[in-house]
């Protein structure tokens, strides 16, 4: 096991933790101590210019000054920000940036980074995440004007670039649903067939769009297969969103927010079930991650090392990740846990942090 970096964005600051040679994680002093950090990316790609230093990207909330994106090329020692607002809506849209929900480096274009934002829009960067431009094809989609905010807002929380084809990608917005493009974002189609929306009237519960999607994930070795956590179910698609099949029927609850795929095994997926009522707490108040090793056909509860009494340990949509460094998640009561054996056992990384919003990990 090599050296690992863990980034934890919270309601009050960014916490970085490092592990050397598979040893314990040491949590460093907080960065941006009074600022919310809802999105983080650990960009370990080589660049067109030949650089190879990991870049940490952080979507931050300045309070009265609004959201922004900052980056560090020295593992958090120093930070930079573009001279102009890095993400800004063109004046003619009449929109204003509310939050940067997602930062996703492209696996097929070395300097490209995608940003999913609120209100429901996609931005593209061609300078490793320093500055961004609006993807107008999605912004001008006729469905967009009828998207409605979910409980967390009108958030574009998932961006899935194809691992080898830069023209193909998918996004998810709550509560618009899943959309896909095959022409580099020039045009988009809703791809929600088979996802039930039980809040709709009988006969209208499988709409073209309007689903309350919480998270979508894929594995780069099998990009046609997608997994989706919905407000009312867990689903799988084997044709990049062309159709969806329920895979959450045997879970103790098919409500939840995060969903991640194992970094090496495309059929292994993790979820964190919550009660579907407004409490949104772990089922039976027990902190348990559920793993499927057969693409959702069956599920196994994983709790070794996790607290038995976890009344408020809910996990937000981006507060879980799976990488070669391990599987990690953080809770709304400020606890962070990790596993280096695919979830069979867990250890505590940090305690008593602020409300955890996002967790990302990478080997250095």
TrEMBL record:
Xref: InterPro entries: BNR_rpt (IPR002860), WD40/YVTN_repeat-like_dom_sf (IPR015943), Xyloglucanase_GH74 (IPR052025)
Organism domain of life: Bacteria
Keyword annotations of the record: Hydrolase
Keyword Protein transport set for record: no
One family name in Pfam for this protein: BNR_6
Entry's Gene Ontology BP terms: xyloglucan metabolic process
Alphabetized GO MF terms: hydrolase activity
Protein name, entry field: Glycosyl hydrolase
Organism per entry: Planobispora takensis
């Amino acid at each position: 096991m090599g050296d690992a970096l863990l980034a934890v964005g919270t309601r009050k600051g960014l916490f970085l933790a490092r592990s050397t040679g598979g040893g314990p994680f040491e949590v460093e002093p907080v960065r941006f101590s009074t600022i919310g950090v809802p999105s983080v990316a650990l960009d370990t790609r080589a660049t067109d210019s030949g650089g190879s230093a990991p870049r940490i990207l952080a979507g931050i909330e300045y309070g009265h000054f609004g959201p922004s994106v900052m980056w560090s090329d020295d593992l958090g020692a120093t930070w930079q920000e573009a001279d102009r607002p890095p993400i800004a809506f063109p004046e003619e849209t009449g929109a204003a940036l509310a939050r940067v929900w997602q930062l996703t480096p492209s696996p097929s274009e070395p300097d490209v980074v995608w940003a999913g934002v609120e209100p429901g829009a996609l931005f593209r960067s061609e300078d490793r995440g320093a500055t961004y431009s609006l993807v107008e094809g999605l912004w001008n989609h006729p469905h967009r004007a009828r998207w409605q905010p979910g409980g967390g807002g009108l958030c574009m929380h998932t961006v899935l670039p194809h691992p080898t084809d830069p023209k193909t990608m998918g996004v998810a917005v709550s509560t618009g649903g899943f959309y896909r493009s095959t022409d580099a974002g020039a045009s988009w189609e809703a791809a929600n067939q088979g996802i039930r929306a039980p809040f709709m009237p009988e006969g209208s519960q499988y709409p073209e769009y309007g689903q309350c999607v919480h998270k979508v994930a894929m594995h780069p070795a099998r990009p046609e297969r997608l997994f989706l956590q919905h407000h009312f179910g867990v689903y799988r698609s084997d044709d990049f969103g062309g159709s969806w099949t329920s895979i959450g029927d045997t879970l103790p609850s098919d409500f939840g927010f995060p969903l991640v795929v194992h970094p090496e095994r495309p059929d292994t997926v993790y979820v964190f079930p919550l009660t579907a009522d407004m409490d949104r707490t772990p089922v039976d108040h027990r902190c348990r991650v559920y793993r499927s090793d057969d693409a959702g056909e069956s599920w196994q509860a994983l709790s070794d090392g996790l607290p038995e009494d976890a009344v408020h340990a809910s996990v937000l949509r981006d507060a879980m990740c799976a990488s070669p460094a391990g599987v990690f998640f953080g809770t709304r009561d400020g606890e962070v846990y990790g596993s280096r054996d695919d979830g069979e056992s867990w250890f505590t990384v940090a305690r008593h942090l602020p409300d955890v919003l996002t967790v990302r990990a990478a080997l250095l």
